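<backbone_tokenisation>
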Amino acid sequence: MPDRIDICIIGAGVVGLAIAAELARPGRKLFVIERNRTFGLETSSHNSEVIHAGFYYPPDSLKARLCVEGNPMLYELCEKYGVGHKKPGKIIVAADEEETKELEHLYEQGLQNGITDLKLITRAEIKRLEPGVKAVAGLLSPSTGIIDSWGLMRSYYGRARENGADFVFNAEVAGIERTLGGYRVSIKEHDGLSTLNAAVVINAAGLYCDKVAALAGIDTKKAGYHIHYCKGEYFAIDPRAGRLANRLIYPVPEQAGKGIHITLNMEGQMKLGPNVKWVNSIDYSVDESDKVNFFKAAHRYLPAIQLEDLSPDFAGVRPKLQGPGDDFRDFIIRDEADRGLPGFIDLVGIESPGLTSSAAIAGYVRAMVKDVL
């Protein structure tokens, strides 16, 4: 490992990989440090793999801006680099008149965010599009899709490597010290401790982003950077249940997530999830006793589904800035120069729509790096 480099990226999830692909170039020394044995083993590969449209998020928020910008960028990247994807569209369904008001709010918010293809649809239109779905009204999002998240990450990784980026796996950042020319990063590997000096450090550590920020000397509690772990489980739907829906079907969103929805993977397998469980540690097990709750949530809009159709599938953990009962919290993406750390770029609370926004986030970070290097 060289003593001095230009850029050190901490974290090789989908966002860290996208940034590496964006910033790597011949002649630039860029290293990505990842604590796991390879890239993308945490939040980036434990999710619904949905390409979101961007109407869930308040106007002028980074989540809205980067999701709306990132949606077409992701489709373009998929076409250019052969990443598996589909665009089945999505319908958010209302079970009663009160939920219909929420659909109208999401529709208006989507228009404010610059989304042009949303459509409020009636019970009859839902029945025509999705005969197996029960709802009084819906919000149709044609630009919502699904993606092979592993394929996307492999594409980012390959492009970064081709342009000279180096990856160090099974390596954990143990310290970050401000120096005259940048930062001294201490790295713990299986054979001991090593250091490198970087002009720019980018914290894309996902579930551990607050801990990395603290290593740089930031008071994360005062800064509002504390990460809450929000677990989401998924249950697979037995293929013998038949084709319950042709699109992604979502209920109206809840406080901490988008609700237990039906989604499809690239092979056409249907699954339900995720739920919301606030946890204190990272655990990817699925509690089979939650099956009844999943069934009840889905049965509201999928009357044909049966309890025996469901089986435990997988779980993920969201790195959320908002805790239980908290209001909306936006992405934090900032150069910490005003805290005495110029060239230390924090990405904190990058949960959904982080996958959809990954290419747009990378462009956003590139502009920050341009001002430093």
Q: What stands out?
A: The mean pLDDT is 96. The chain has two domains: 4-46+151-225+328-370, 90-142+228-320. DSSP finds nine helices and 20 strands in the chain.
